[in-house]
Amino acid sequence: WCGFLLTAVVSPRMAGLRVDFGLFLEPLGFIKVLEWIFSIFAFATCGGFQGETTLLVSCKGVVNKTVTAAFAYPFRLNTVVFSAPDPKRCGGTWTDVYLVGNFSSSVQFFVTLAVLVFLYCIAALVVYIGYKHVYQQNSKFPLTDLAITVIIAFLWLVSTFAWAKALADIKMSTGASIIPGIESCKAPGTTCRFASVTSMGTLNVSVVFGLLNMVLWGGNVWFVYKDTNLHNQSNRLSQSP
């Protein structure tokens, strides 16, 4: 996506740079800036997350020992293990306990899309600001922009709902419901209590930004469509007797 527009920018036909920031006052440019900003928030609120879930374990010779499992993006929870309560591992009754689930595909899809959209918005803004005259004269550019806008709007829809579902599963896999599935907690004389889990407020925000991006790109389809010859042809047909 980005390569197409960047190649066009440096091509001989587009050598005449005409910088015009007035496009920011039009929906086409203003919405593109919002899409650029919101894409940053989408991957920034998700990609750098780090957290941990904590249990209190009482077993042979140990009382209310804190054990933790630290997890982070891209949320391959099945590789995250709880620390042992003590060096003797509760007299041999404590075995390695892993969290459940691998949610990397959903979250990496979401973050990768946000990064690609970020790059595409930069390339598109370069064309809008410096080469708007060529963009309007060559019908291929608006049509390509329209096709990419429709595809991105659809991908935001798919990735956001996939990530929202994965986030709900992550909360389940790191919350109090994990205790019944821990075999070591069922050993005679061993009790486990859920203590805490890192707040996932920023991850909730990332889903919100995903929805906002979906709405922005879906709404922008109309403004990009107005610059294509498809819209011009429909106007001519409606005006013809």
Automatic annotation (TrEMBL):
Keywords: Glycoprotein, Membrane, Transmembrane, Transmembrane helix. It is a multi-pass membrane protein. Residues 23-229 form the MARVEL domain. It comes from the Eukaryota. GO terms for cellular component: synaptic vesicle membrane. The chain crosses the membrane at residues 109-131, 143-164, 203-225. It is found in: Membrane. The keyword Transcription regulation does not apply. Belongs to the synaptophysin/synaptobrevin family. PANTHER family: SYNAPTOPHYSIN, SYNAPTOPHYSIN-LIKE PROTEIN 1. This is SYPL1 protein. It comes from Spizaetus tyrannus (black hawk-eagle).
